[in-house]
Automatic annotation (TrEMBL):
<dbReference type="InterPro" id="IPR002933">
    <property type="entry name" value="Peptidase_M20"/>
</dbReference>
<keyword id="KW-0378">Hydrolase</keyword>
<dbReference type="InterPro" id="IPR052083">
    <property type="entry name" value="Aminoacylase-1_M20A"/>
</dbReference>
<dbReference type="InterPro" id="IPR001261">
    <property type="entry name" value="ArgE/DapE_CS"/>
</dbReference>
<dbReference type="GO" id="GO:0004046">
    <property type="term" value="F:aminoacylase activity"/>
</dbReference>
<dbReference type="Pfam" id="PF01546">
    <property type="entry name" value="Peptidase_M20"/>
</dbReference>
<protein>
    <recommendedName>
        <fullName>Aminoacylase-1</fullName>
    </recommendedName>
</protein>
Length: 163
């Protein structure tokens, strides 16, 4: 269902979407691409992930996958903070900029990967070793992040220094 949802988002943004399976069919990599005016330049990667840490429903006041909003507007859903909100922010920002007619010199790739929460061994880790990844020509990447209830957008450096 997540891949179908992302394909729908890509279509609404008029962004071609490709699926890669570096390990198996259960762990896809979704790549949406907004081609820049100068495709020869190194590209920008906005990376997100589709998986969540294991769920223990008995510890929740709301259904983990219910996506419930309370009277204050707070959303309770597994993965809403890590990482669905940031992935949707990427797409929302691109949607708003495209609506304003902004054109980018660099190509922008938005990726949604599997298996990030368990170390990436069935997701980004094997994908970066493939010719498909190398063909993306990544020059700069934003990965992870947190939602912010204010205008402040915190940036973390080397939180996961493994990569």
């Amino acid at each position: 269902p997540c891949v179908a949802f992302l394909k729908k988002q890509a279509a609404a943004l008029d962004m071609p979407v490709r699926l890669f399976y570096p390990v198996n069919e259960d762990n896809p990599i979704v790549v949406m691409t907004l081609t820049g005016t100068d495709p020869s330049l190194p590209c920008i990667l906005l990376n997100s992930h589709m998986d969540v840490v294991p769920v223990f429903a008995e510890n929740w006041k709301h259904k983990p996958f219910g996506a419930e909003m309370d009277e204050e507007g707070k959303i309770y859903a597994r993965g809403a903070q890590d990482m669905k909100c940031v992935g949707m922010q990427y797409l929302g920002a691109l949607r708003a900029l495209k609506k304003k007619g902004v054109q980018f010199r660099r190509t922008i790739h938005v990726t949604f990967v599997a298996d990030e929460e368990m170390g990436g061994g069935r997701g980004m880790r094997p994908f970066v070793e493939t010719a498909d990844f190398k063909e993306l020509k990544i020059g700069f990447s934003l990965v992870e992040g947190l939602a912010s209830p204010t205008e402040e957008f915190p940036v973390f450096y080397a939180e996961r220094s493994v990569w």
